[in-house]
Design goal:
Largest sheet: 3 strands, antiparallel
Order of helices and strands: HHHEHHEEHH
Radius of gyration: 20 Å
Shape: globular
């Protein structure tokens, strides 16, 4: 019976039994670090799923294609495929497929790398920059909307705490 109480309490904390996610198997007996990790992952997954859906519905684009364009927007000189793969944490084959699609739509172009003539870089075209700018503005509004109930003070606190965590994880990874 005690386990049932923990499950009901966890369901209430998540917003109800129908709100199943990564935290659904946790009880108060689980380690706090595990609870934190799953809470962060759950929130990230929910936001990401909503963004995926909205990008597909509104712009007919996938999140990986949007993410690749975002990387290129930050680097107008272009990025090599290997660098895109590293930044997006996906395989080179995935980057090639995404790039091929965006190139067919004339949103990106492959150009000879100025530093190494044997390699090529990927850059946004003028149409790609314009298309991405429009999508990015709407994307930002969506994020603002989804996080509207979190106060500015709470957002600042979470950013500071997660920044500390990120620095510590980098040190542990040897970066």
């Amino acid at each position: 019976m005690d386990d049932d109480r923990h499950v009901r309490a966890a369901d209430a904390d998540r917003g109800g039994a129908s709100d199943l996610d990564l935290e659904s198997r946790l009880t108060d007996a689980h380690h706090q670090s595990l609870r934190l990790w799953l809470r962060m992952l759950s929130c990230t997954t929910r936001i990401e799923n909503e963004i995926r859906s909205r990008l597909r519905t509104t712009f007919g684009i996938t999140l990986p294609r949007f993410d690749l364009m975002a990387q290129l927007e930050r680097h107008p000189e272009g990025l090599r495929m290997g660098e895109l793969s590293r930044r997006m944490m996906v395989t080179g084959g995935n980057i090639t497929g995404i790039t091929d699609q965006l190139e067919r739509e004339q949103l990106v172009v492959r150009v000879q790398d100025a530093r190494d003539r044997r390699a090529s870089a990927v850059k946004l075209t003028a149409a790609g920059r314009e298309t991405f700018a429009a999508m990015a503005a709407v994307h930002e509004r969506w994020i603002e909307e989804m996080l509207a109930d979190v106060s500015g003070e709470d957002k600042a606190s979470m950013i500071a705490l997660l920044s500390t965590m990120k620095r510590r994880l980098r040190v542990e990874d040897g970066e």
